[in-house]
Write a structure and sequence with these properties.
Elements lengths: L3 H27 L5 H23 L14 E5 L4 E5 L6 H14 L12 E13 L2 E13 L9 E4 L1 H5 L2 H7 L1
Helix pairs in contact: 1-2
């Protein structure tokens, strides 16, 4: 994972390259090189990249890790208020709860638009195969969180117990 120090070092090197390119621009104008205007563009681009890298060195890039959460994949995202994640069929209730909270943290974005609804709803589903050649989607739970607050203290987690009971591991424990 990149840290602020790595971005600072990269920013310094790109900054040095920007200054070197600026020196070439000055020489290009003095000696009337045909490439001088392209060098101006390259210098501007390097300036923007170095400023971006230096800004990334100031802002910490952190990712909250929820203990017990499983890996998930996003299978649907409206870009607004609805997201569906896919989970393996062998999951426990505690893993599901932790994974929903992890997804709520990972998928939060202040850039999501709200169309009257101020909450992001993330649903977790898995696929069951009751018979060969037949696939059945099964929704296991959902979490609702604020679209506006990164650290939402009032996230609502709902676990669908009847769906959890249909999972293969639940049948093995019952038998």
């Amino acid at each position: 994972m990149q840290t602020g120090t790595n971005f600072l070092i990269a920013g310094e090197w790109v900054g040095i390259a920007t200054l070197a390119c600026a020196a070439l621009v000055i020489l290009g104008f003095i000696f009337k090189w045909g490439i001088r205007f392209r060098l101006v563009g390259a210098t501007g681009l390097l300036g923007v990249v170095s400023a971006g890298l230096l800004a990334l060195s100031l802002v910490p890039i952190t990712r909250t890790v929820i203990p017990g959460a499983m890996r998930f994949s996003r299978v649907y995202d409206s870009g607004v208020t609805q997201v569906v994640i896919a989970l393996p069929p062998k999951i426990t209730e505690t893993e599901l709860s932790a994974t929903l909270r992890q997804a709520a943290n990972d998928l939060f974005s202040p850039g999501r638009l709200s169309r009257g609804d101020q909450q992001l709803t993330i649903r977790a589903r898995t696929i069951l195969h009751p018979e060969p050649g037949i696939s059945e989607p099964l929704y296991l739970g959902q979490i609702k969180r604020s679209l506006l607050l990164r650290d939402d203290p009032q996230m609502e987690t709902t676990i669908f117990q009847e769906s959890l009971a249909r999972l293969p591991q639940s049948q093995a424990k019952a038998g």
